[in-house]
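REQUEST FORM: STRUCTURE PREDICTION
Request ID: SP-0412
Submitted by: Lab K.M.
Chain count: 1
Length (residues): 137
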Amino acid sequence: MNALKHLLKKEFKQILRDPAIMRLILVMPAIQLLILPFAADYEIKNIKIGIVDQDHSSYSKLLIHKFEYSDYFDLVQYNHDVRVGESWLDESEVDLYLNIPSRFEGDLVRDKEASIQLAVNAVNGTKGNLGALYAMN
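STATUS: Completed
RESULT:
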């Protein structure tokens, strides 16, 4: 314990003796606080999405259009068969799989709400979770 006390005294004397070290101690954290927030970007883009459209209606096409032209998603697969959509997830071809059922437009017009299925490939948990959150918006 005595050796540690001696070492700390020596280091503090050195820091106080050299003004350049004192400037570095004060300036470097301030520079890091100013620059590093701009360097870190926690948004995930280019999330691969596959869409199965069983409805083929104007509302389903509008929904697909929103995903297709989103900054976050890349529409990499499109089909009409549910089994094909499930295989996309199994083979990790997509990060998200959206299934639009055949009664989508009818339910939306009649009940003002409709159900869709969004399946997430959880191999990359962060990408899957953020992709699901982006899709909900």
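NOTES: Helices lie at 2-17, 19-39, 58-68, 82-90, 104-111, 125-136.
Reviewed by: T.R.
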